[in-house]
Amino acid sequence: MNVVVVESPAKAKTINKYLGSGFTVLASFGHVRDLPAKDGSVRPDEDFAMSWEVDGASAKRLGDIVKALKDSDGLILATDPDREGEAISWHVLEVLRQKKAIGTKPVKRVVFNAITKSAVLDAMANPRDIDMPLVDAYLARRALDYLFGFTLSPVLWRKLPGARSAGRVQSVALRLVADREAEIERFIREEYWNIAALLKTPRNDGFEARLVSVDGKKLAKLDIKNAEQAGALRTMLEGASFKAASVEAKPTKRNPGPPFTTSTLQQAASGQLGFSASRTMQVAQRLYEGMDLGGETAGLITYMRTDGVQMAPEAVQAARQTISKVFGEKYVPEKPRFYSTKAKNAQEAHEAIRPTDFNRHPKDVRQFLDADQARLYELIWKRAIASQMQSADIERTVVDIDAQNGSSVAQLRANGSVVKFDGFLGAYVDHREEEDVDEDGARLPEIRAGEALAREKINATQHSTEPPPRYSEATLIKRMEELGIGRPSTYAATLATLRDREYITIDKRKLIPEAKGRLVIAFLESFFKRYVEYDFTADLEEKLDEISDGKLRWKDVLRDFWTDFFGSVDGIKELRVTNVLDALNEQLGPLVFPPRDDGSDPRICQVCGTGNLSLKLGKYGAFVGCSNYPECKFTRQLGGSEASGENGNGDEPKVLGKDPYTDEDVSVRNGRFGPYVQRGDGKEAKRASLPKGWTIEAMDHEKALALLSLPRDVGQHPETTKMISAGIGRYGPYLSHDGTYANLESAEDVFSIGLNRAVTVLAEKLAKGPGRGRGTPAALKDLGEHPDGGPITVRDGKYGPYVNWGKVNATLPKGKDPATVTVEEALLLITEKAGAKGTKKAPARKAAAKKPAAKKPAAKKAAAKKAS
Q1: What is d(CA 387, CA 385) in angstroms, rounded to the nearest whole number?
Q2: Class of domain 593-644
Q3: Which stretches does UniProt call biased (Basic residues) (predicted)?
Q4: Can you give the C-alpha Rg of the chain in angstroms?
Q5: How far apart are CA 808 and CA 865, in angstroms?
Q6: Which one of 294, 483, 597, 749 counts the least CB within 10 Å of its CB?
Q7: Which of 330-361 are b and which e, b meaning 16 or more Cβ less than 10 Å from the residue's Cβ?
């Protein structure tokens, strides 16, 4: 019997069915150990020695592997076929060797790009050793990221209160978003006009033509600058005669794109399905690891972390056969298509993302998948099929038209296109290609050279130039790939980190840098410019690739990086805060000093009229203040308008009136954590935050008193006679009664809901299921059976969403969408929760019974940990 180690339980379950009783397949649940988040985990002075830590949940899983190995013939490491997968295998093996669990038993490494029976059995028949250059590249990346973050982040904390962290790839991605925002702020709109004529052929068919030149001079986009020019040209054309000067039809071909890579899949899923990068990877992971297809378990797609664009020869042949069967022989090109990547620093060790079996048509497997899985699989299937199909034949027609009015001559042009043979477009049309087709125009009617054309109408339309659009997740990933920044496995995690750090927000799928994020990147560009340059980051990625190819030694790369980096950080330790603020005032001019409507100097305080405005650093971050402080107390939040300074004085309250019972002032204020209302002064003053959607400008005396009076008694429950209360808490507006909490739809409901409606809402909450003193939340999502039996569900509780299995409740990570939780993520959370409970009880009691004195060093260790 052999022990096989993979990453996830879903993958283990699928592979176990293929291998049979002679194998025990166990899941590591990803990495089994990591660098502790503290100083000294990577030690440059000790030749970059690294300390690894195994958490409680991983220790339990490793214990299961050790136990299984006792009666086994050998160990097979079958983790994913990339650097991370190789590193997981290396970590598992290192821990097992430290535990002396291997002995003389053989250890083999197997990899497969698809989880199908044939791919798995073929891999088992062709094992290899762990690829140490790949492991070295992983070690170099982890050390670089650790040294960058743990060396630079403390500098940020000291020089920029409120800043949370810096990261080698994270900071460069943030710079891309911030630079685009600065570009938008600097953009100056320009007015321009377009002139178009609605014409008709002698056969009474209408079409539109645009003005392109006047009296032999070509018109550029911005040449018609105002209404006066546009009006003169329209008048000229309204009196002109029109004739088709030439009609040219050009046959062209449009070729298909390659199958998906990680980044192109994320871009297409964003544009066509509305998926975030992380959601795309979660769904793709499930399709890769294996689905139950009515009794047969198989992975539906190949490995989804890749920047290769080729498919295996047998897959190409299978695709051609499916094209012939589904679309017809004329859609099969004479020769197979071959692709090469254009991305900088791309690694082509793996295939592109494709179906494992092209005969599994999306409509045939839809019944076994949820909606998101079905949509993503269809996208992958269509793109891979299209990549091996015939080109589309398109006829583009260009008609040049002469317009003459006396001595004035103008030229107009009409464009159109028609698909003569759809080719690959019959299977897949990229959302960007659809936009290109629209720009080419629709099909033109029959127009003959030399014939006169009738004028129907002349339109002059006003436009203005537009700033470059903000990045979306998809376009940012595309740009990072073009620059060679990061790798397929890092894109989604990088974006998630920027959101978690509150450096960016996402609004209508657009990435907007927060003031905090722009402050951080401005600081890094001012004092660590080299380390947030695109080329520097891409060059490091290239060196990591050379390490994985065995061309560079990983510690040599670390030494080169650390020598210069440490010197740069050491040189800034004595930098004065005033120097930092001067640099940031200059770097962030449009953000710190937005233009004023009256045209006055935005750097002069509008309250006192003599002070200079500047960035200031407080306990909770940066803000804008006056140089005449404390005489002038004007402040406003970074990125806020002048009006946000509340009557010109951001630290002073706006008094709304008196409390009728206490005669204390009721005021509205803008604090570090947002706007709030307050009654009275001092530490004992009553305060209440403004609910979501409420603004300082809209606050009045009545609303402020209502907020300060919460929680509100709605009335006694008719059955229990206990009071029902309404309030606004951490998770929004709610009702409470006898330990039961029920959410309300809006803050307004808190003040208006009556007793009857409140009783109904509470009854609906209780009807979702019994609980300990309150209604057990209904399941938001059913994830299926736990391997040990019992259903796994996702629920929404008093303190947020969580995963439930039996008596185990595991809280979801902050920001995690409950609807996107996979069974693998749920199992990991449940295991960690159960493992944490186990490590807190029996082991501690057992140790106490045997050695009472052992508590002393443990206590010291706990105290030291708390102090650090």
Answers
A1: 5
A2: alpha beta
A3: 838-868
A4: 33
A5: 28
A6: 597
A7: ebbbeeebebebebebbbbebbbbbbbbbebb
pLDDT tier at 203, thresholds 50, 70, 90: very high
252 pLDDT band, cuts 50/70/90, is very high
d(CA 516, CA 174): 11
**Integer Cα distance of 865 and 412 in angstroms:** 77
Q: Which residue has the higher pLDDT, 340 or 336?
A: 336
Whether domain 140-187+469-577 has CATH 1.10.460.10: yes
Give the C-alpha separation, 191 to 182, whole Å: 21
The C-alpha torsion from 815 through 819 and 822 to 826, rounded to 10°, is 60
- State the pLDDT at residue 322: 96
- Name every residue whose Cβ is closer than 8 Å to that of residue 197 and which is 6 or more positions away in sequence: 208, 209, 210, 211, 237, 242, 401, 403, 412, 455, 456, 457, 458, 459
The SS3 of residue 318 is helix
Domain ranges of the chain: 2-130, 140-187+469-577, 191-255+393-464, 262-390, 593-644, 654-709, 712-768, 779-831
* Sign of the CA dihedral with 597 first, then 598, 602, and 605 last: negative
Catalytic pick among 146, 303, 503, 534: 303
The token pair that represents 592 in the structure block: 């710190």
Query: Within 10 A of 65 (CB to CB), how many other CB atoms are there?
Result: 22
Pick 772 or 115 by higher pLDDT: 115
Report in angstroms the alpha-carbon separations of 201 from 219, 743, 826, 833.
25, 65, 66, 75
**Distance in angstroms (rounded) separating the CA atoms of residues 621 and 672:** 9
547-551: which pairs have CB atoms within 8 A and are 24 or more residues apart? 547/133, 547/136, 547/137, 547/140, 548/83, 548/133, 548/134, 548/136, 548/137, 548/347, 549/133, 550/133
Give the CATH number of domain 262-390; options: 1.10.290.10, 2.40.30.10, 1.10.3720.10, 1.10.10.60: 1.10.290.10
Residues 151-184: tens digit of each pLDDT: 888 887 777 766 777 888 999 999 999 999 999 9
User: What number of other Cβ atoms are within 10 A of residue 806's Cβ?
Assistant: 13
Q: What is the DSSP string of 56-118?
A: HHHHHHHHHHHHHHTT-SEEEE---SSHHHHHHHHHHHHHHHHTT--TT--EEE---SS-SHH
CATH of domain 2-130: 3.40.50.140
Local structure of residue 550 (DSSP, 8 states)? T
Q: Is 303 a catalytic residue?
A: yes
